[in-house]
Predict the structure.
Amino acid sequence: MENTLSKIISRASDFNSIMVSRALSLLEELINLEIEIDESELSDEEKGKLKTLLTRLRESIYSEVFNSKE
């Protein structure tokens, strides 16, 4: 029984690490998108709307990552 529990804990830890890694990759991609938006020929209004959306996504991901660590 203890061996099974150890395996489950190990797999859960591995899964958590994978999910954190994916979240960090998403954050990196959001940063790249923000740079592309800044360099685009979109209007300031369009840029603002897109950057607001990216900020909300980034905050949501940060929240999930930090809440999972508690």
Q: What stands out?
A: Helices lie at 2-39, 44-69. The chain has two helices and no strands. Residues 20-69 form one domain. Residues 5 and 67 are 24 Å apart (CA to CA).
